[in-house]
Amino acid sequence: SLLEDESFKVFGPNQSFFSLKRESTSAATVVLPVHLETELAGILVFENESDLTAFSGLESDLLHRFQNHAVTALGKARLMQDLLATAQNLKETQKQLLDSAHMAGMAEIAISILHNLGNALNSLNVSTSLIQERLGNQRMLPLLEQVALLMEHNQENLGEFLTETAQGKKILPALKELARGLSEWREKLSHEFENLGSHLHHVMEVVRSQEDYINVRGFSEELEIKSLVDEALSIASPFLKKHQVDVSFHHPKEAVPFHSQRSKILQILVNLIKNACEAMIDSPERNLSITIEKNLQEIGIILKDTGPGIPQNLREQIFQFGFTTKKSGHGYGLHYCALAAAELEGDLNLIDSRSGAVFKLSLPLAPAPKKD
Fold first, then answer.
1. In contact, 277 and 242? CB cutoff 8 Å
2. pLDDT tens, 238-280?
3. pTM value?
4. Which domains does the chain have, with CATH numbers?
5. Cβ atoms of residues 268 and 341 within 8 Å
């Protein structure tokens, strides 16, 4: 039945509907509260402008159905509103995470590049020092000056001086010895200048490799694996000499051509050779064995040292960024090598060995087809 009082009343959730007659143009009014849990979320108002008894015959079940439909619709609207707000928050959080990941990735790339540049510049510095040392410790030039001075003082009777005097008879053998020594000196300097040029080229390759990260696809060219390993050994020669490491290189007799990114492979190999040298500091025998394997699909480059090896409990961590077992290490080298190998469509693995550490770099013989 209708309520006859003039007041507007809102009841609790258990009193789910009521009617209200109030001062308005409507002759009859029914008000249904809409509750979400214990909160009054709204009201449904039904009005008739002319018939005072318009709602007197309504059944409570019908009013309940109206009320439940309103509660359901409002609940869905609230849920959708919450979902949209949550989605927006997730989108903003995702953007923040992507920005953070991008910055972290940029920092990681920069650290890897600096690490590889450090290796290359160290080799460059060693070659420069050797050249300076050879230029500064040249003892043959003063001897040549003394010979020239003696010949100048005896130029009026030079023939007699060279053939008749004890001092003169030593001139020709001395000149031959000086010629031989100067030839060796020139050859050593020429070799160091070649190394210097190679190291400079490697520095330029490391810097140029940044374009690989900008353009995603690096420059692929036809390479020959033995020549590439020889070049890596030349670049890493300062580390090999410093730690007195003997190298044995086993490779197929025939050339093994393939397509890949030269700079990345060189950086991987130089890092692995440098790590092997440092791992063998306390070893009585310092031997590095490099073996090239080949099948129809890929090339394998295996590097084995005679160091203490990698403890079993650390094997799953060695390729992680920042992980290192060295006192002065930073944990960038092997992490970079693993990423670079993956970018070359290959992989870098630590192989089980009874002694020493054995790493295998696997590379495809042909580059992966380009994606449109």
1. yes
2. 788 888 999 999 999 898 899 998 888 988 998 899 889 988 9
3. 0.48
4. 220-372 (3.30.565.10)
5. yes
